[in-house]
Amino acid sequence: MNEEQTRNRIMQARTIVVKVGSSSLTSMQGMLDVDKLNHLVSSLASALELGARIVLVSSGSVAAGLKPLGFTSRPDDSVSRQAAAAVGQGLLMAQYEKSFARYGKRVGQVLMSAQDTMRTSRYRNVRNTINRLLELGAVPIINENDTLVTSEVKFGDNDHLSALVANIVEADALVLLSDVESLYTAPPSDPRARRISFVENAIEQIDDSTISGTGSSVGTGGMITKVDAVRIATASGVPCLLTSAANAGPALMGDAVGTAFSPIRARGSRRRLWIAYASHPQGSIVIDDGAVEAIKTGKPSLLAVGTLGAEGDFSAGAPVWVESADGTKIARGICAFDSDDIVSLAGKNTEQIERFLGSEFARPVIHRDDLVLLGTRAE
């Protein structure tokens, strides 16, 4: 897909996930900038009036809560940031509600944690809630639950969250808005930097060494997190656009602003996309060299005869890593057995399993439909 086709697809998208960063909604002092927010909402309202369904992933709760609590800069400790988020999220949503109301649109707050994407039941509940809000004509406004989330179970940045949301709602496009107008060949401060208007394959064509760094003192992400989000989305069949919040309107209308990213592959099944990008492996299955080579073809299921054992304590139905004997992660999958059973099954062929353990154990450890190779298509 070329640049013109990619931009046309974004312009014609029915369901669009738009992510906006903290720096695009706040002043230099870290306060919520109502003018910036209103400009964003105006751009989104234009797309809504043309029939688009918008899911807004919005940062800004911590930044919005800084001044009301007496902070002059973003605090270093997590507890103070969580307190700022508790105050700022309410202020942020109140302003969104007021701004969207000017265009006759309702908004709905959806605060997510990583746990909501790691477990299939909660993943399904999130999807159903967001889709119902869209059916009712409301704009879902999503943020990570910064008030309560811990570092062990957090997305880390809303760029990653927005890519997962794009998968959850089966979006037709993902638009990432920040304070940077485009992707460049080097940091924009470098006089040799050149704007990149189109990327056909974000996995193969972008070198992380040229996009390191964080653009703002009030945000948590940088260009690397945005490109990582693009990689997830485009590998899932979703075209992307990266540009500044000031260009939100032109971006949604298909104008040649920012950097457009072509989808690398066709959209995969929702279940396999969850396994590949949203599941949280609870342990590992270690496999021998023969099984590694077989799994890499992307065709067979993982059988007990190719397993060496299990690491971690998990139950049947849990997402797990599939690793080689040297610890290299090969794939993710949904295991059909408890970790204790894997130890008993390891290395046995089907005849041995039926003889010693019973026919109910003579099935794949991970069925090929539940097995996704790392760095490959989740189809």
UniProtKB/TrEMBL annotation:
ATP binds at residues 19, 178-179, 220-226. Keywords: Amino-acid biosynthesis, ATP-binding, Cytoplasm, Kinase, Nucleotide-binding, Proline biosynthesis, Transferase. The lineage of its organism: Bacteria, Bacillati, Actinomycetota, Actinomycetes, Bifidobacteriales. It is an enzyme of class 2 (transferase). The keyword ATP-binding applies. Catalyzes the transfer of a phosphate group to glutamate to form L-glutamate 5-phosphate. Belongs to the glutamate 5-kinase family. It comes from the Bacteria. This is Glutamate 5-kinase. CDD domains: AAK_G5K_ProB (cd04242), PUA_G5K (cd21157). Pathway: Amino-acid biosynthesis; L-proline biosynthesis; L-glutamate 5-semialdehyde from L-glutamate: step 1/2. It is found in: Cytoplasm. GO terms for molecular function: ATP binding; glutamate 5-kinase activity; RNA binding. GO terms for cellular component: cytosol. It catalyses: L-glutamate + ATP = L-glutamyl 5-phosphate + ADP. InterPro entries: AceGlu_kinase-like_sf (IPR036393), Asp/Glu/Uridylate_kinase (IPR001048), G5K_ProB (IPR041739), Glu/AcGlu_kinase (IPR001057), Glu_5kinase (IPR011529), Glu_5kinase/COase_Synthase (IPR005715), PUA (IPR002478), PUA-like_sf (IPR015947). Substrate binds at residues 59, 146, 158. Residues 283-366 form the PUA domain. One of its GO terms (biological process) is L-proline biosynthetic process.
